[in-house]
Amino acid sequence: MTLLRSGSATDVGRVRQVNQDCVLETGSLFAVADGMGGHAGGEVASRTAIDALARAFQPPAEGLPPAGLLIEAVETANQAVWEQAQADSDLWGMGTTLTTLALVEEEGREELAVANVGDSRAYLLSGGDFTQLTADHSLVEEMVRSGELSAAQAAHHPKRHIITRVIGVEPTVDVDAWLLRPVTGDRILLCSDGLVDEVSDEDIASVLAEVEDPGQAARDLVTLAREHGGRDNITVIVVDVVAGAEGGGAGTTSAAVGPAGPPTSADPGGGSIGPPPSQAANPAAASGGTGVALATATRTPVTSRVQVPSASPTQPRPLRPPQAPPRSSRPVTLRVVGFLVLLAAVIAAVVGAVAWYATGSYYVGLAGRRVAIYQGRPGGFLWFQPHVVDRTSLTTGEVLPSRRPDLRAGMQEPSLAAARRYVANLRQEAASLPQFHPSRTHHKASTTTTSGRS
């Protein structure tokens, strides 16, 4: 029978005012959630996810729950956060990471199942090797996996905190899950990014290898993260396999199984951190090194659960293959539909404004030798061209010479009625000047010519 012992610590850090992390620690289920969202959204998201996970992952009356139940519980947590955000406009957009470890039964064997969404991590210390079990669902980590960035570049990339998969932002979520053989002496670490952003893997492994008590190891890691800056909330769970499959490896020898109880809330004041032991300030000082080797787990996505035991009992095996990159197609939500409707309304308003500006005025111009009234703007605007609405009988010969340049350029008027008044004024203006009357001048000239012939 597998026996586990655990300890946890959480702290607000040295910069943030509120601890949006939440931790779950029972005898067989452990989880870390790192919330995000404006106002109280992050706190609500992480707490809602942890509570829903604990309710959904209920063991049967006898034996252990199946491994698949952990995935279903994470999906239930996602749905709970999503529904709460939809019910309260102040919480729209809230979300949380969720990384969890559970003791389960798979094909008649006791196993440890690890599941994660987001960039909170799970690590394994086994036989001197320190391995990251989970893959971050972040933009930078996906760029590293695709070869666009190196690990060194990713550590300082300005977009390293952009998460590509989160609990509660969509009604459904992809969950990565792995099976792990519980080997006596193994130690599993669950933590939020407030630890790994401040403390190197080497220093984390040193503390885990040197500090026997899991609770003290968790507190020492949190203290170390605070000393290195503490720019984010910090949450750590250390889980020891006290009894399990034989495999050998440095670890605890106590047979205590601890603690089994309700989810532990994040401590807003950071009061869970006690004074660090002397080795926490310099983990490797006492022995000059721990002999811990850092290892990178290599995983090959498969389409079904692995049935054949792996060569190494501690090598993680896919329970559900990781989804990287994330799905390109997602369900269309009410929020997406609302955004598209709003975008269409904005585009329609812009097009309408342009059309009104281009066609909402008139001008008096020339259509050949005739004075005409046009709707639109002289020369056109964008794809809107002016068109004739009234071709008058007035010709350029009947208009004062001083008015002809305005007609060639287009004399703008605010309305069709104003344009017609302008044409009438042109007629009256020419008629009111005796020295300029085209028809009368032509008649006198004809008369004079006839008299001369007589």
How does this structure look, described?
The chain is of the alpha+beta class. It folds into 2 domains: 3-331, Phosphatase 2c, domain 1; 358-453, no CATH class. Helices cover 32% and strands 23% of the residues. The protein is built from 12 helices and 17 strands. It has helices spanning 41-56, 68-87, 139-145, 151-155, 193-196, 201-210, 214-227, 278-281, 334-359, 404-409, 416-431, 438-453, and strands at residues 3-11, 21-25, 29-36, 95-96, 98-106, 109-117, 121-126, 129-132, 176-180, 187-191, 234-243, 293-296, 317-320, 362-367, 370-375, 387-395, 411-413. The strands form 3 sheets. Strands 2, 3, 4, 5, 6, 9 and 13 form a 7-stranded antiparallel sheet that branches. A 6-stranded mixed sheet has the order 1-11-10-7-8-12. Strands 16-15-14-17 form a 4-stranded antiparallel sheet. β14 and β15 form a beta hairpin. α1 (41-56) runs antiparallel to α2 and α6 (201-210) packs antiparallel against α7 (214-227). The longest helix has 26 residues, at 334-359. The protein is rod-shaped, with a radius of gyration of 39 Å. The termini are far apart.
